[in-house]
Each structure stands twice: as structure tokens, then as C-alpha cells.
């Protein structure tokens, strides 16, 4: 089939390349000309799509990248994989709307449009369909098919491959579901049909709200057990021996990324809008998780104070600035807040992030350094935010005056864990 994938980021590019590999003719559409030029040159910006795979489908002509909307004409099926950010706590669906309008301009009778972007229940029927109908003059369910199929990209997840992860699929009617399921059956080992888009939209939000709430529970508990003098890390390991009814979560300096700190708030926002009542678990989880960087800074200040040092003027080294281990993504990373707070208290804040050479293209309020023995030894306090595999933790432990280890990876008289 002639496929368009609108949005060529960490969700759209893997789908577009895989669709091309299984035999579709795919146009990867993105509004960012720089990204399109990179892709057209065979340079992948998505860690789970090696450039060699991208070049292979470019060479066969089964994949092309474009920023030119006119190149979308004639598609049989289009997938929208654009960002859905929060703006001051409010879902911003602008990218969905503009993509739908562009796809609507080229929508033909018999074609299908699938929304993959994470959003609140009702978006497919309340926003996607009207926008497509208005732009095309066609009618959903009569002239064209549509549905929702949430993405389940897990960056760097070595256990579950892209095509090995079960894929929820839904349609606005039976015909839509049939077409959409057939498309995804050609790409994923398992597809899971549900009764309609709202169920699929909600299922996705349940997945990440589950994580966000449970991470916040273990984060809050960590702040309390630290004062109780009980080792929560050992207790979690012990609880994790339970073979059923338990899912392991560990404390951290905060919850970053473009999924967890965002998706649950789409749900709580919609509930507040529709029912005028709070989704209390999400509000509490967000409060706890958003305040973990403040807790980290409090622990650093208290430890400096015990050693007769003032945070004002103290040299502090942050290790691991990305939001996830061994990742290159800084989005919503707690390190930004930790650096901002410490700088505000007068500290000389340095950061070592081996996955982002010399801090290229970042705006963190800190000085980028390497985690050399000299840098570590010269710091009044070291904070391990993300325990990247590239860190030599035993060497860091040997050279550091004091470490707040947010990942429970080190031990010694100079080590404190979160
Ligand atoms: N985190 C903790 N404690 C935990 C787990 C995570 O503090 O026990 C923190 C991480 O340090 C990170 C943040 O939460 O800052 C998010 O971590 P994540 O493992 O959820 O990673 P993400 O944001 O890449 O989440 C994505 C999600 N995938 C989709 O939404 C399709 C999530 O559902 C996956 O479980 C996750 O990838 C994954 O497992 O890789």
C-alpha cells in the first residue's frame, strides 16, 4: 500500500522503516526540513533505527522522507505519530490538528487514517475525524476509515523489539478496524483489537499512569524510610522475590522523558474538564515526582552542612544528566531542576554526561565536564543521578569526598543512597 507516516521522530521513524521493509511504499512526512534532510541522507536520529536500516529502504526507494505536503497525495493509509506535549499543564494537540488537516487535504475515498500519538480519550472522534472531514469534504465511516493505535516504543529496550511488542488496534467501525488490523498484522507479531478508539486511548494512558503512580509511591516512601533508617533498596529487592502480584519500581531523583510525566496528566486534565473532579492519584503522583529534585538538593545541602561546608560556593558534580539510563534524551530530565536549584543556592555546578559529548545543543545551567578522577576529587559533593554503563563507579567511589547515589550502585563510608 501507499503509506504516509506523519511525524518522523522516535515513534514515526521505526514504524515507517518497518512498513517499508515489509513491502509498503512509504513516505515519511515531517515538518522539520533539517530532520528530513538528515533522513534523506540516510542519517538516523533514532537510536533504535540504525542508519544502515534507513539507508537500505532509501536505496530500494520503498521509503522517502519529505517536508513537502504535496508528496502525500495518493496515500491508502496514513499514520499520525506527532508529539502531544503539555503546555502549562494543558494538553497541546496542535500537531495532531495540523497533521490531520494536511492529510485531509489529500484524503481520498477508501483511504484510512490512524492516530498513534498519545492523547486523552475522545481525541480521535472529537478532533481527528472533524478535522479530516472539514479538510476533505469526505465523511468518516462513509468515505474513509479511521482509528487509534497507541505506540509502545520503549527506547533502548533490549527485551522487547518494536515488532515483538503487542499492538493495540481500534477503528471507528468494523471496516476501519479490519483495515487497520490488517496493516499492523503485517508489521507486529501480535495485534490486539479493542472495541473502539476511546478504549485504546484510555488503555495507553492506563499503562503509563500505572508507572507514574507506582514510581511516586516508591519515591515518597524512600524519603520516609531514609529518616526511619531502613534500607528501602534492600526491601525492594526482597519484595521483588514475590513471583506474583508485585512489579518492581525503584526510587530516583525524579521522573523524566516525554511519556511518564506527560501522559497521566492528559488523563487528569480530561477528567477535570469533563467531570470537574480531580484524578487524585495523578495529582499526588505528580506532586511527589516533581519534588524529588528538591529532595535531592535538600540531601546534598544537609550533607555539606554536616561536613561544615556551605552550599554557596560549593563545587558539585552531577553524574548522568539524561532522563533514562544509557539514553541520550534530556527531555524533562530531573537533572535540569537539580542543577537549577543548586545554582540558585550559589553552588558551582558541573555535569558529566558521557552520552552527550560536551553538552551539544543543551541548555542546562551547569558546566559540562568529564567524570575524570580529578573532577570527582575536586568536588565537595558528587550526585549520581543516572548510573550509565560508561561510568566507572568504583573509581568514582575511590576519588569522591562524598556521593549521593540516587541509584544505589555504590557503597562505602563516603556514599549515601537516596
Ligand atoms: N523511573 C524511576 N523508577 C522506576 C522506573 C522509572 O525513577 O522504577 C524513572 C526513570 O529514571 C525515568 C522515568 O522514570 O526518568 C521514565 O522511565 P521509563 O522507564 O518509564 O522510560 P520511558 O519514559 O522511556 O517510558 C517508556 C514508556 N513506553 C511507552 O510509553 C510506549 C514506558 O511505558 C515503558 O515502560 C518504558 O519506556 C520502558 O520500559 O522502556
Q: CATH class of the largest domain, please?
A: Alpha Beta
- Bound compounds, please? ligand SAJ
Structural shape = elongated
CATH superfamily of the largest domain: NAD(P)-binding Rossmann-like Domain
If strands are numbered along the chain, what order do they take across the biggest sheet?
Answer: 3-2-1-4-7-8
Whole-number mean pLDDT = 96
Helix percentage range: 40-55%
Largest sheet: 6 strands, parallel
**Helical element count?**
14
Strand tally is 16
Unreliable runs = none
Q: From the alpha-carbon coordinates, what is the Rg to the nearest angstrom?
A: 24 Å
Strand content: 5-15%
CATH-derived topology of the largest domain: Rossmann fold
Counting copies of identical and different chains, the oligomeric state is: single chain
User: In whole angstroms, how far apart are the ends?
Assistant: 52 Å
CATH architecture of the largest domain: 3-Layer(aba) Sandwich
Topology pattern, helix = H, strand = E: EHEHHEEEEHEHEEHEHHHHHEHEEHEHEE
Q: What is the number of domains?
A: 3
Give the structural class: alpha/beta
Tell me what the structure shows.
- Helix content is 40%, strand content 14%.
- Helix 5 links the parallel strand 7 (112-115) and strand 8.
- The chain is α/β, with parallel strands linked by helices.
- It folds into three domains: 2-195, NAD(P)-binding Rossmann-like Domain (Rossmann fold), CATH 3.40.50; 203-289, N-(1-d-carboxylethyl)-l-norvaline Dehydrogenase, domain 2 (Orthogonal Bundle); 291-417, NAD(P)-binding Rossmann-like Domain (Rossmann fold).
- It has 14 helices and 16 strands.
- The mean pLDDT is 96.
- The longest helix has 32 residues, at 197-228.
- The strands form four sheets. Strands 3-2-1-4-7-8 form a six-stranded parallel sheet, sandwiched between helices. A six-stranded parallel sheet has the order 13-12-11-14-15-16.
- The structure holds ligand SAJ.
Amino acid at each position: 500500500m501507499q503509506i504516509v507516516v506523519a511525524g518522523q521522530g522516535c515513534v514515526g521513524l521505526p514504524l515507517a522503516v518497518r512498513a517499508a521493509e515489509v513491502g509498503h511504499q512509504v513516505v515519511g512526512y515531517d515538518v522539520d526540513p533539517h530532520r528530513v534532510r538528515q533522513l534523506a541522507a540516510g542519517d538516523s536520529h533514532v537510536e533504535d533505527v540504525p542508519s544502515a536500516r534507513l539507508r537500505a529502504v532509501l536505496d530500494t526507494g520503498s521509503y522517502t522522507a519529505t517536508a513537502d505536503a504535496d508528496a502525500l497525495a495518493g496515500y491508502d493509509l496514513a499514520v499520525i505519530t506527532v508529539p502531544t506535549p503539555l503546555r502549562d499543564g494543558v494538553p497541546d494537540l496542535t500537531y495532531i490538528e495540523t497533521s490531520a488537516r494536511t492529510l485531509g487535504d489529500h484524503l481520498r475515498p477508501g483511504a484510512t487514517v490512524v492516530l498513534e500519538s498519545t492523547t486523552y480519550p475522545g481525541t480521535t472522534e472529537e478532533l481527528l475525524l472533524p478535522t479530516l472531514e472539514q479538510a476533505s469534504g469526505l465523511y468518516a465511516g462513509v468515505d474513509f476509515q479511521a482509528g487509534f493505535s497507541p505506540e509502545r516504543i520503549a527506547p533502548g529496550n533490549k527485551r522487547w523489539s518494536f515488532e515483538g511488542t503487542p499492538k493495540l488496534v481500534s477503528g471507528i467501525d468494523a471496516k476501519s478496524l479490519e483495515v487497520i488490523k490488517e496493516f499492523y498484522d503485517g508489521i507486529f507479531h501480535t495485534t490486539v483489537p479493542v472495541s473502539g478508539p476511546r478504549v485504546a486511548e484510555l488503555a495507553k494512558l492506563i499503562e503509563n499512569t500505572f508507572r507514574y503512580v507506582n514510581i511516586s509511591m516508591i519515591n515518597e516512601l524512600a524519603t520516609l524510610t531514609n529518616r526511619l533508617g531502613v534500607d528501602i533498596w534492600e526491601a525492594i529487592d526482597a519484595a521483588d522475590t514475590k513471583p506474583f502480584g508485585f512489579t518492581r519500581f525503584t526510587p530516583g531523583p525524579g521522573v523524566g522523558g516525554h511519556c511518564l510525566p506527560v501522559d497521566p496528566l492528559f488523563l487528569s486534565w480530561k477528567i477535570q474538564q469533563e467531570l470537574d473532579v480531580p484524578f487524585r492519584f495523578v495529582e499526588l503522583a505528580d506532586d511527589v515526582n516533581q519534588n524529588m529534585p528538591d529532595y535531592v538538593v535538600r540531601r546534598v545541602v544537609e550533607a555539606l552542612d554536616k561536613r561544615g561546608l556551605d552550599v554557596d560556593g560549593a563545587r558539585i558534580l552531577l553524574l548522568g544528566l539524561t532522563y533514562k539510563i544509557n539514553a541520550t534524551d534530556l527531555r524533562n530530565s530531573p537533572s535540569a531542576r537539580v542543577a537549577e536549584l543548586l545554582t540558585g543556592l550559589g553552588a558551582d555546578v558541573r555535569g558529566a554526561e558521557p552520552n552527550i559529548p560536551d553538552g551539544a545543543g543543551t541548555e542546562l545551567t551547569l558546566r559540562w565536564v568529564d567524570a575524570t578522577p580529578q573532577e570527582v576529587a575536586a568536588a565537595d559533593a558528587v550526585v549520581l543521578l543516572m548510573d550509565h554503563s560508561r561510568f566507572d563507579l568504583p573509581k568514582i567511589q575511590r576519588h569522591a569526598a562524598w556521593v549521593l547515589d540516587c541509584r544505589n550502585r555504590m557503597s562505602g563510608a563516603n556514599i549515601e543512597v537516596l
